[in-house]
Amino acid sequence: MALADVKIVLVEPAGPLNVGSVARVMKNMGLHQLVLVNPQCDRFSSEARQMAVHAIDVLEAAQIVPTLPDALHGCQRAIATTGRRHTTLNLPLEPPSSALSWLITASPVPAALLFGREDRGLTNEELNYAQRLVYIPTSPDYTSLNLAQAVAICCYELHLSATRENLTETDRTITEKTIVPSASLAPSTTNLASLDVLEGFYQHLESLLLTIGYLYPHTVASRMEKFRQLLNRAYPSPTEMALLRGILSQVEWAIRKSESRKKDEEQRYQDK
């Protein structure tokens, strides 16, 4: 049941063999929500069906959406995977064993695990939609993982986290030795603002900052990226986001009131 609320999101997958393989390993590990963002291949192709084998139902139920925000609709938590050892984002790269259990809580919440394109992964802009980043350690001799292989590793870790209570004492001891404590990286609370709410705030903030001249068109992307990173580290609650949105609305009201007063004064001056 803990895995029922976790979406596996593939951004612009190009290989039907990969999509089919992902559907299969998802079903192997008890995951069923597959979301394809602007797919570049046919999920119903013979290649995809061949690799899915008995997971055709996962393929058929897959949600197709045009953008990543659409895929994250309703989610409260999101982890993105990256194949780059270093990013410009102010988020630590965590191994799957320590990070992915955060998607599964005692009181399940809608969550997503994001994977990028086969050839270049997720862009920095796309990584910014996640609150945490996962990097799968590999041999320096060959660091590039196939998409389906990366999904398989992560799905296994999710399955392991969900079923850990059922492990034998020996297995649990072995498993716990591989886990890097990450309590300091994220709160245990499940009362997090949804990613939809966060996105609405970012759009509101960007519009206001452009209006007051804090942002300029050529600086929007870099400045907003920093704001996203800041809030992703803060894990705000719905109440806190409502507070921030209220501040933005009040600033907009003050601007309108100031402009109205200025017009009234100009009109009175013209009437004299």
TrEMBL record:
Listed Pfam families: SpoU_methylase (PF00588)
GO molecular function, one term: RNA binding
CDD domains in UniProt: SpoU-like_TrmJ (cd18093)
GO cellular component term of the entry, any: cytosol
Catalytic activity: cytidine(32) in tRNA + S-adenosyl-L-methionine = 2'-O-methylcytidine(32) in tRNA + S-adenosyl-L-homocysteine + H(+); uridine(32) in tRNA + S-adenosyl-L-methionine = 2'-O-methyluridine(32) in tRNA + S-adenosyl-L-homocysteine + H(+)
Key words, A-Z: Cytoplasm, Methyltransferase, S-adenosyl-L-methionine, Transferase, tRNA processing
A single BP term in Gene Ontology: tRNA nucleoside ribose methylation
EC number, UniProt record: 2.1.1.200
Ranges where the tRNA/rRNA methyltransferase SpoU type domain occurs: 6-156
Keyword Transferase: yes
Subcellular location(s) per record: Cytoplasm
Keyword DNA damage: no
Subunit and interaction comment: Homodimer.
Function: Catalyzes the formation of 2'O-methylated cytidine (Cm32) or 2'O-methylated uridine (Um32) at position 32 in tRNA.
Record NCBIfam families: rRNA_methyl_1 (TIGR00050)
Protein family according to the UniProt entry: Belongs to the class IV-like SAM-binding methyltransferase superfamily. RNA methyltransferase TrmH family.
Protein name: tRNA (cytidine/uridine-2'-O-)-methyltransferase TrmJ
Origin species: Thermocoleostomius sinensis A174
